[in-house]
Amino acid sequence: MREGDSDKRERLQQAKSLAEVLEVAILFEEAAANFYQLQLERVSKPLRWLLESLVDEERQHSAKLQALRDDPVFEEQLETRIEVSPVDPQFSDAIQIQALDEIVDDQAILQYALGREQLAMDQYRKLAEMTEEGVIQQLFQWLADEELHHKGYLERRYYELVHRGGGASSRYDF
């Protein structure tokens, strides 16, 4: 065995098919939409509009991923194996929404949501780097950019809440 062969074999064993990656991403996006939906009754009115928008956007992400997964044009590509990123286990674990009984205010919900959006952004960026140029790579890059925008909206609202005492909510352009 040549030097470095065992490292390559180990990385290949950790690789997943693109179909598996898409399935996890679909589940993640659905879990995100469900998380935001569940929080609607727990947040103050000024934050509800943002969460409602995020529910819709996360469902759109899931639909785009499903359309790609189900498109016969990409059937052969879905068997392509790609190396699992270091973020992948955390991303997969985030499909399960934590018990949020201890989260009782807008600030805590925003903190949790910010962590989910950062995780999604990191995962999609890494997937875009690891896939070949084309529609699939463009989708992962678009998703990473979308999650970055979500994070920006959440950060601005968090800043308002923490540094301005919650003040009147302003609507951000989506």
How would you briefly describe this protein structure?
The chain has 174 residues and is mainly α. It has helices at residues 5-14, 18-39, 45-70, 88-93, 106-130, 135-163; strands at 16-17, 81-82. It has six helices and two strands.
Q: Can you lay out the helices and strands and say which pair or pack?
A:
Elements: H1 5-14, E1 16-17, H2 18-39, H3 45-70, E2 81-82, H4 88-93, H5 106-130, H6 135-163
Antiparallel strand pairs: 1-2
- SS class: mainly alpha
Q: Whole-number radius of gyration?
A: 18 Å
Strand segment tally: 2
List the strand order in the largest sheet: 1-2
Number of domains: 1
Number of DSSP helical runs: 6
* Major beta sheet summary: 2 strands, antiparallel
What percentage of residues falls in helices of 4 or more residues?
55-70%
What is the strand content? under 5%
Q: Considering the protein shown, what is the CATH homologous superfamily?
A: Ferritin, core subunit, four-helix bundle
CATH class assignment: Mainly Alpha
Taken from the alpha-carbon principal axes, the silhouette is elongated
Structure description:
This protein is an all-alpha fold and 174 residues long. It has a single domain, classed as Ferritin, core subunit, four-helix bundle (Ferritin), CATH 1.20.1260. The chain has helices spanning 5-14, 18-39, 45-70, 88-93, 106-130, 135-163; strands at 16-17, 81-82. The chain has a two-stranded antiparallel sheet with strand order 1-2. It is elongated. Residues 167-174 have low confidence and may be disordered.
